[in-house]
Write a structure and sequence with these properties.
Helices cover 39% and strands 14% of the residues. It has one domain: Glycerol-3-phosphate (1)-acyltransferase. A seven-stranded mixed β-sheet has the order 1-7-6-2-5-3-4, with helices on both faces. It is globular, with a radius of gyration of 22 Å. The mean pLDDT is 90. The chain is of the alpha/beta class.
Length: 266
């Protein structure tokens, strides 16, 4: 495990979690995991995965731990202000995402610094659990591309399937009996060479992000044994369609809104 130069985490707390957490995580799920050899054993690396459930975090943490790395998750900065939770996250060296920053380059500043110090940084590019009805990865935010292109560190794609059976998104009820199988598959580093040296414009970041998500989706298709959709689900586009449909429905419900126009008498 790497040690950050400025020791802004507690080695003791990290050591404690490495001893205390693997057993309960293993007890909570059956595992069918492959591809951990693609995660470098040392040096800065970005691990990017699809997001189905809060249970993804536990599965990913153990997956990375078994690959010989300590996971440093990107977590929204507000969580670090929660009493009891915040100090624990700081002590373990987890990384705040400052989404409120108006400067996009500052949002992932802590993560980029951690990569420079040899950390294994875990990111869920979608930013939240997928809203795709079939649970395929949706259109992602561009943070993963910005972080990778700004630092040059590799992005290892990881697909997860089955965690949503343990803790469905939006639910607080764990389903531990019977134990469900969580399947995970890591692939080789994403090829982002086409974007190297280019200005970090919106188009470049979107294209690089789509490349990362295509690799993750391809791995997930192997786990599921199904073909993914031709294009990822776009929640913003879906909301626009819903608003338009609601507007049309409102117009139809207005008095006379759906009545045929009466002909004028001759």
């Amino acid at each position: 495990m790497s040690k950050r130069a400025n020791q802004d985490y507690s080695p003791g707390m990290r050591g404690f979690t490495k001893l205390a957490l693997p057993l309960p995580i293993r007890s909570a799920m059956k595992r069918d995991w492959h591809g951990q050899e693609h995660i470098p054993r040392q040096g800065g690396v970005i691990v990017a995965g699809n997001h189905l459930s809060y249970a993804d975090w536990a599965a990913m943490a153990l997956f990375v731990h078994q690959a010989g790395r300590y996971p440093a998750f990107l977590i929204k900065s507000s969580a670090f202000n929660v009493k009891g939770i915040g100090p624990f996250l700081h002590a373990c060296g987890q990384l705040p995402v400052n989404r409120g920053s108006t400067d996009a380059a500052l949002v992932l500043k802590e993560a980029e610094r951690a990569l420079e110090h040899g950390e294994c940084v875990i990111i869920y590019p979608e930013g939240t659990a997928t809203r795709d009805p079939a649970k395929w990865p949706m259109v992602a935010k561009t943070g993963v591309a910005r972080m990778a292109l700004a630092t040059g560190f590799p992005v290892i794609p990881v697909a997860t399937w089955g965690a949503q059976e343990i803790l469905p998104y939006g639910s607080k009820k764990l389903h531990l009996v019977p134990r469900h199988t969580v399947r995970m598959l890591a692939g080789p580093a994403v090829d982002l060479s086409a974007y190297a040296g280019q200005p970090l414009s919106r188009d470049v970041l979107r294209a690089a992000t789509a490349t990362v998500m295509a690799d993750i989706t391809g791995l997930l298709a192997k786990l599921r044994g199904e073909a993914p959709p031709a294009a990822p689900y776009d929640p913003a586009a879906a909301r626009r369609v819903e608003r338009q449909q609601a507007k049309e429905q409102t117009l139809q419900n207005e008095p006379g809104g759906d009545e045929p126009e009466k002909a004028m008498p001759a």
